[in-house]
Specification:
The chain is α/β, with parallel strands linked by helices and 273 residues long. The protein is built from 11 helices and 10 strands.
Length: 273
């Protein structure tokens, strides 16, 4: 059976190295192969970058059996990510950013389009490297929308690879209608995780500041990953005050898995399947 593929865009910065480290950790657990992607700038030659990639692959081979490949393209990074992801049949993209300072760079109009229209998940990391043991503690925010259920397949897969635990958080809605919908989604999530034999717990958080409460909770339990569903109608408002922006750029630098609503119908497949 063909291995899954994790795509890691890189400009050889420190945060790109961190993203690569996270990808290797995940790839070793699945198992999967990792493909590095670099877009040439005007001062670079293909030979120079190929030499650098080969040196990286030799170093990685000393510590892990993960298969690592690379793709070198000309053009604009955010214009090439989607096409290369299709070309290498990537199941996930692991990408770095510098928190709030780097958010505009990560989510300029072109990058924003990549994320909101991607049919495979992103894991967005900051400068915090992977922990020993990988993603042991995964925070899973669940709200009242039906699409929220789709995250469970990805979360359960990753949790099982690392023998991890899922920490479900839900908004404590005062509105009875919304509260009932959240309760149904929570019930579904618990049943699903029980069937998958994934340990979990659940916590209700302040609905009025659910994004900040989620970050505080994730930092409190020293989480390794937060998984969110990318509601396109929310992020398309330039991430001005979106939950997605607040969580992805969290000050605790916890990696965030971003799953697009479009995955529901267009996903290549859950990793490991």
């Amino acid at each position: 059976m063909a291995k899954d593929t994790l795509l890691v865009p890189t400009n050889f910065t420190e945060v790109d190295e961190v993203a690569f480290s996270h990808a290797l950790e995940l790839a070793e657990a699945i198992p999967a192969k990792v493909v590095l992607l670099h877009i040439l700038n005007k001062d670079e030659t293909r030979d120079e970058i190929e030499t650098e990639f080969k040196e990286i692959i030799e170093l990685v081979a000393e510590d892990t059996d993960v298969e690592v490949g690379y793709v070198i393209k000309e053009g604009v990074l955010y214009d090439e990510i989607a096409s290369v992801a299709d070309e290498v049949e990537a199941h996930m993209i692991v990408m770095g950013t510098h928190g709030l300072q780097g958010w505009q760079f990560l989510t300029g109009s072109r990058a924003l389009k990549i994320i909101t229209q991607s049919h495979i998940p992103f894991i967005v990391v900051q400068e915090r490297g992977p922990r020993v043991g990988g993603f042991d503690h995964i925070v899973l925010p669940i709200d009242f929308t039906n699409e929220e259920k789709q995250k469970l397949h990805y979360v359960a897969s990753i949790a099982k690879y690392f023998d991890g635990e899922v920490h479900i958080v839900t908004p404590d809605y005062e509105d009875e209608f919304l509260s009932n919908k959240v309760s149904r989604n929570l019930h579904y999530a618990k049943n699903f995780l029980d069937e998958q034999e994934v340990p979990y717990d659940a916590e209700m958080l302040d609905e009025k500041q659910f994004d900040k409460a989620t970050i505080r909770y994730a930092a409190k339990i020293d989480a390794d990953l937060i998984c969110i569903l990318n509601h396109e109608d929310a992020v398309s408002q330039l991430f001005g005050t979106s939950v997605e922006q607040q969580i992805i750029t969290n000050v605790a630098q916890i990696p965030v898995m971003v799953i697009n609503e479009k995955i529901i119908t267009k996903a290549r497949g859950v990793i490991g399947t």
